[in-house]
Every structure is written in C-alpha cells, then in structure tokens.
C-alpha cells in the first residue's frame, strides 16, 4: 500500500477546493483511505493518519472512528506518538464515552514516567477530560507531582488538581498540605497556577476559605513585589510586571476579604498602592485597575478607598474604548446603592454617555441615570432624560418612559411639574408607555384640584396637535369630559386662557370617534366624554344625536355604551346629572405606587381604598330599581332595604371585600421565594361563604436595579386540591422595590390536608430570560386547617 499523504499536503489540497461539495468529496476520499489503514493495523503511519483526522475534526467532519487509534498511540513508547495520541484523546473523547476509561492505566504509567514532557502530556489530558472515576484513581499521582521540585510539572499538576477538585470536591483535603508550599515558589507559572488552585478551593469550601485567610499577608507581599519590581523582560507586558498574576491575586484577595474585617484591613494599603501606581495608558493597566475596583467594592474597605475606586471608574468613563466605558457603567450601577454620593460626583459624565452611539452603553447610562435621580437633582436629571427620550431609538422608549414615571412619582417637586412631565412623556412616547400609566395620570389629575383648568387646557392643545399617541388621547378625552366646562369658561390662571366654544370641543371628540388612528378603547373614552358633557354643555341635542348614531356600531363595546347612554337620555333623564357628576378625589394607597391594583374577574382595575367611611346615603327603592333596569330589561328583582351591620374600620378592609367578601383571619404572611433580587410574599384570607377555600395573594417585589419584564407566576398543587389562578396586576415588577405585582390564588382544600405547592417563575431581566422552580411546603397551619 502506498504511503499516505502528509498533513501539510492534505491541508494544501483541501484549501484548493472551490465549493463545499468539492471539499466534502476530498474529505470522504481521505477518510476512506485512513479507515483502510486503520483496518490493516498500519503502525508506521498511524500517527500521521490520526493527525489528519484531528484536522478534519477541527473542520467539523466526523472523526469518532479514530478514538481507539488515539489509545494505541498513547500506549506507544515514542514521544511523537504519545503527543498526537493525547491531543486526539482531548479532542475526540469525553467522559460520556466509556472508551475514555481504557486510558486510565496509560495515564497512570505516564504520570510516573522518567521524562517530564511525557508526564506533562498526561497531566494536561487528565486536567482536560478526566472523569470523576479517573480523578479518584489518579488523584494520588497528581498530589505527588505537586510536591516535586520540578516547576514545569508543578504548574501542570496544580491546574490538574483544579480539575480534580471540580469533579470530586471531597478530594480537596488531599491537596491541602501541598498547596501551602506553592506560594513560596519563585517561578511565576507555579505561582499563577497555585493562586488558581487556592481560588477554586476557597470558592468551593467555607472551611478552606477560613483556613487560607491566614495567607493574606503572603499574598499581599507577592503583589507588592510585583508592583515594586523593576523591568523583567520575561514577565513584562506593556511595561507592567506579570499582569495575569496580579489579576489572579486580586481575585483571590477579593474572595478572602469578603465579610472579614481583619483580612480586609490587611489588604487596604496594597489595594491603594495598586490603584495609584498602575499605569492607565495601556489596556493591561486598565484590566488590573478594574480588578482592584471590584476587590475594593467587595471587601470591607475604608470609605476613602471606596471613593478612590469610584473615581477610577469615573476615569474609565472618559476612555475612548467602548468596552472600558461599558464596564465602568455596569460597575457603577452595582455600587450606586451603597456609595450614592461618590457616584453622584460623576453625574455629568454619566449623562454624557446617553449621547453615545453604542446602544449597550446608552442602555447602561440610562439605567444608571435613573438610579442617580433624587429630590435635589430631579429637575436637571429629568430635563436630560426627557431630551434622551425625544431622540432615542424605539427600543429604549418603553424603559425610559417607565423610569421617568417612577422618578416623577417619587421625587416630583410640585404637582404642576409632575403633570407637565408626564404629559411631555405621553406627547413624545405615548405609544410606548405601560398600560397602567393612563389610570395613574387620571388619578393624579383628579387629586390636583387647583390644576384642573390648567391641565384640561394643556391636554386640549396637545389633542389639536397630535392624536396618534393613544394614551395621551385617552387621558385628554377623560379630562375634557370631566372638566370641559372649565375649558370653555377660560378659568385658567397658570397660563393665558384660550377661547374655545362648546361646538369646537365636541368637534374634536367626534373627530376621535371617526379617526382611523383611534383604538376601540380610545373611542370608548371619547364617547363617555361626550356623554359627560351633556351635563356641562348646553348642546344636549347634538350630543343625543352622536350617542344614538353609535347605538348601531359594529364595535360591541361602543354599541353597548351608546345603548345604555340612550336609555339614560330617554328613560332616566332625571338621574343623568347625578350619574355624570364630577369624580370625587381619589385617595392614594401607599402599598403599591399610585393605585392599588385589584383583581376583579380576571381583569385589573385601579381601586380606591377609602380610609373613612362615608355616611350612608338612602335612595328610594324605585330609583335603585331604575338603575338595575339599565342593565337588563324588565326582569328586575326588587331592591329590599336592609340595615347592614357596621364593620369596624380596618386597613385594606374594603379592598378585601372587592376580592369576594373576605375576612381578615389573622393568618401570618410568609415569604415563599427570595432569590436573585425577586421576592414573593404570600398573604392569606378565608372566603366567608366557603371556609374550605383559602385565598392567597402573592406580592412580587424586585430589589435589583432593573425592571423584571414579562413576569409570569405559575403554581401547581397535588390532585386532592383545586387551584384557581387569577390574572396578575401587571407583568412588570418595578426595580428597587418601587412597587409590587399582586396576583390572587384560590385553593379549595375540602379534606383539610397540609398545603403544598410548586411554583414556576419566568421573567426577563436586562434582556436575559430567567426561569426558576421552587417548592413551598412551609405554609402556616392556619391557612389549611
């Protein structure tokens, strides 16, 4: 049989292929020749054939038929054969295939070989693909090589020990005596690998972490020598002595100093030296400074050192490299809660990053800007963020609008400023705001009694300019319906009043009803506004005509409204002024932002919880029956006047009544889930008609710096229970605990068994989808007994 072609010739031949099909044909032809050679047990060219097979594997072609040939090369006495055999084993074998166990004896023999390079090959292979069984069998040989005086073998043995510990953590103590002496080694390669080994052990075992804390002074000494040492051509990278070792030591110090005062105190001085002496003109220096900053922020460092770290990140923001700017913004976002004032000093630089061309930098800068907003800088920061909202890409508008709403709600200096800000957002990015922004703004306007004339005038002007932003149009329609009389009378004192006639106002609202831009919800707002104006304007006949037209609308919702309003005009005209009078002031609840979201029949509505009980209003029986007749023809059950027992005032009592006549049963709340910044609390009530039904309200809060979007809560119970899951109040859990998402679960437990539940949580955080499962078994006995 002729000698097979060399690897170099094969590469040259494959590169001449003009098409994928031609390349495949060449590969198949060569594979057939290699298979024939393997079948004939050709020992002369086995090494060459396996090398060619590895090249084909790198190109993505199947090469599994060469696995056993790799084992034969490993068993060979020639170094060149062993080298290709071990390389093939690392590429073609892994612990999922039983073939790899056949190597164990060969590796054991080679670990005890007289040649260091053969020992090195065996260590590399074991450290790359050794299974837990192999690691258990060969850990003793690795530990022996860790104690050898040969630095070439010690560094490879240290890395192999890292793999052994990852596969079999209980073998960690075997390497403990050998690791203590590694840090006294002068060779930088051994030092580097020993620090990697120490880091792995400290991360995996709290006992090891406590044991190795006494090595902090030695690590500090090594780091100091690296900083103070002169030029060393062997370790120099861009004028810095062995930056790779410096970074590894800083990471290990970060682990050792976390939550430990003594260790943190011992490393404060060296961290300050690294932060001040490292050259920043090259990327190597920036890498060391970044690790230094992370270490300072993670340990219990002095306040002055933390300010120095944040100033380094501030300098990073001025760097031309986009990656460095992004890293700085991300790090500042993590530290802004603990070192708010220090980060505030770099506010102008952070705001400038909003103008960056890179979208990821803009997003981080936007998140950090919202985190920096407080009562002192709200006006200036909102000006910059609203300017950003005007010019940013559509992908940013939803998050930016949501952030502006939350900040304005929390820090607004005045009600006029608050209303102006939210109207500006609705004008520029109305299509991107969250669903709850319309009821929230309506509540804000209702409660700002002195601003009614100003608000309705501003909204009317905005409506004349643009009717494409549906949330803006809905709020404007509602306000015109409520305060249209103030608009026509020109009572605005905050700015020059405009002269508007009743017909002009009605023309605008009728235009919304026929506009192609209006959604069905917007048309409903506009029709209701026109109906309300029948008690505020004198043009009642025109309004009757408009309402009657929509009694035959193809939109069922609009048709139903129009039919009911027509009935109000014809049968119950004497009740119309009372029914359409102005909305009362709505009192805010402090539990969940501007409104408490209440579940009713699977839909979310803003509910108002009154703190004082209004005096009972007695209406004639026939008037109440008239109201019922509006909703359903002539089959009306008469209303019988009964005296209701007076309930004591209790926080949230009325809110619970909306959920189905619930009683406060004194069942203690519980935390069902608390992980990665997401916290799920359960509160319990009993349903009065059926004591076997437990009503559980979940409260989801988010302590991270970014909103959790697309939030879905799912629950399952054993077959002996029945579970009903109502719709959530929102699918966005606001950041920094600035609100909660609520959802009601009803559980029927007729056999009074202990309650068990499995929950599944799905959400998106910073663009990444997160999914988690959890078991909840610690329900309070009162919830199921």
From TrEMBL:
Ranges where the GAE domain occurs: 665-780
Region (Disordered): 597-617
Primary location group: membrane
Keyword entries, A-Z: Cytoplasmic vesicle, Golgi apparatus, Membrane, Protein transport, Transport
Entry-linked PROSITE patterns: GAE (PS50180)
Subcellular localization: Cytoplasmic vesicle membrane; Endomembrane system; Golgi apparatus
One Gene Ontology biological process: vesicle-mediated transport
Pfam families from the UniProt entry: Adaptin_N (PF01602), Alpha_adaptinC2 (PF02883)
Topological type in the membrane: Peripheral membrane protein
Designated name of the protein: AP-1 complex subunit gamma
Source species taxonomy: Eukaryota, Metazoa, Chordata, Craniata, Vertebrata
């Amino acid at each position: 049989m002729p000698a097979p072609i060399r690897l170099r010739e094969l590469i040259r031949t494959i590169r001449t292929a003009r098409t994928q099909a031609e390349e495949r044909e060449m590969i198949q032809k060569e594979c057939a020749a290699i298979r024939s050679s393997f079948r004939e047990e050709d020992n002369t060219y086995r090494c060459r054939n396996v090398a060619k097979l590895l090249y084909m594997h790198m190109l993505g072609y199947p090469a599994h038929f060469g696995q056993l040939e790799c084992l034969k090369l490993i068993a060979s006495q020639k170094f060149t054969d062993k080298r290709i055999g071990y390389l093939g084993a690392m590429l073609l074998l892994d612990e999922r295939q039983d073939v790899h166990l056949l190597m164990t004896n060969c590796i054991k023999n080679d670990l005890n070989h007289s040649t260091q390079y053969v020992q090195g090959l065996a260590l590399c292979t074991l450290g790359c693909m050794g299974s837990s069984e192999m690691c258990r069998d060969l850990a003793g040989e690795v530990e022996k090589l860790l104690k050898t005086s040969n630095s070439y073998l010690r560094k490879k043995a240290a890395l192999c020990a890292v793999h052994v510990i990852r596969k079999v953590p209980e073998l960690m103590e075997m390497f403990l005596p050998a690791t203590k002496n590694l840090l006294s080694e002068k060779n930088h390669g051994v030092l580097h690998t020993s620090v990697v080994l120490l880091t792995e052990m400290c991360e995996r075992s709290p006992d090891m972490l406590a044991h190795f804390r006494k090595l902090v002074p030695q690590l500090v000494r090594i780091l100091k020598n690296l900083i103070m040492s002169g030029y060393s051509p062997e370790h120099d990278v861009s004028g810095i002595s062995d930056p790779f070792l410096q970074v590894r030591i800083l990471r290990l110090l970060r682990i050792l100093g976390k939550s430990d005062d003594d260790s943190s105190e011992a490393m404060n001085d060296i961290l300050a030296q690294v932060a001040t002496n490292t050259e920043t003109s090259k990327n190597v220096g920036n890498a060391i400074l970044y690790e230094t900053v992370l270490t300072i922020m993670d340990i219990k460092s002095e306040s002055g050192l933390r300010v120095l770290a944040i100033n380094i990140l501030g300098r990073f923001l001025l760097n031309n490299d986009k990656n460095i700017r992004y890293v700085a913004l991300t790090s500042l976002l993590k530290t802004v809660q603990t070192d708010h004032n220090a980060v505030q000093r770099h506010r102008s630089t952070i705001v400038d990053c909003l103008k960056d061309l890179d979208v990821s930098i803009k997003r981080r800068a936007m998140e950090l800007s919202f985190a920096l907003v407080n009562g002192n800088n709200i006006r200036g920061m909102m000006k910059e963020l609203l300017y950003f909202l005007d010019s940013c890409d559509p992908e940013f508008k939803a998050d930016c609008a949501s952030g502006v709403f939350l900040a304005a709600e929390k820090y607004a200096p005045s009600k006029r400023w608050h209303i102006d800000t939210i109207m500006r957002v609705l004008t520029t990015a109305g299509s991107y705001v969250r669903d709850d922004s319309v009821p929230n703004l309506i509540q804000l306007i209702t409660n700002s009694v002195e601003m009614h004339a100003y608000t309705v005038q501003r909204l009317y002007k905005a409506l004349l300019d643009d009717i494409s932003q549906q949330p803006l149009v809905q709020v404007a329609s509602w306000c015109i319906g409520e305060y249209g009389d103030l608009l026509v009378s020109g009572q605005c004192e905050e700015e020059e009043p405009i002269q508007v006639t009743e017909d002009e106002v009605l023309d605008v609202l009728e235009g919304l009803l026929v506009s192609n831009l209006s959604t069905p919800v917007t048309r409903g707002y506009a029709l209701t506004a026109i109906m309300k104006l029948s008690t505020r304007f004198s043009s009642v006949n025109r309004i009757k005509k408009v309402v009657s037209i929509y009694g035959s609308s193809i939109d069922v919702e609009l048709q139903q409204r129009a039919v009911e309003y027509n009935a109000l005009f014809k049968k119950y005209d004497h009740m119309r002024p009372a029914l359409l009078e102005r909305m009362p002031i709505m009192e805010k609840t402090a539990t969940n932002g501007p409104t408490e979201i209440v579940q009713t029949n699977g839909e979310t509505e803003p509910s108002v919880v009154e703190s004082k009980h209004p005096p009972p209003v007695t209406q004639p029986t026939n008037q109440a029956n008239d109201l019922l007749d509006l909703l359903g023809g002539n089959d009306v059950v008469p209303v019988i006047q009964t005296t209701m027992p007076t309930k004591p005032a209790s926080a949230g009592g009325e809110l619970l009544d909306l959920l189905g006549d619930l009683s406060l049963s004194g069942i203690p709340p519980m935390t069902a889930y608390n992980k990665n910044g997401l916290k799920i609390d359960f509160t319990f009530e009993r349903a009065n008609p059926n004591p076997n039904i437990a009503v559980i309200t979940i409260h989801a809060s988010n302590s991270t710096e970014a909103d959790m979007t697309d939030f879905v809560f799912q629950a399952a119970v054993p077959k002996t229970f029945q579970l009903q899951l109502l719709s959530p109040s929102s699918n966005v859990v606001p950041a920094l605990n600035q609100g909660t998402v609520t959802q009601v679960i009803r559980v029927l437990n007729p056999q009074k068994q202990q309650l068990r539940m499995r929950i599944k949580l799905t959400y998106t955080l910073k663009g990444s989808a997160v999914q988690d499962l959890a078991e909840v078994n610690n329900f309070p006995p009162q919830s199921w007994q």
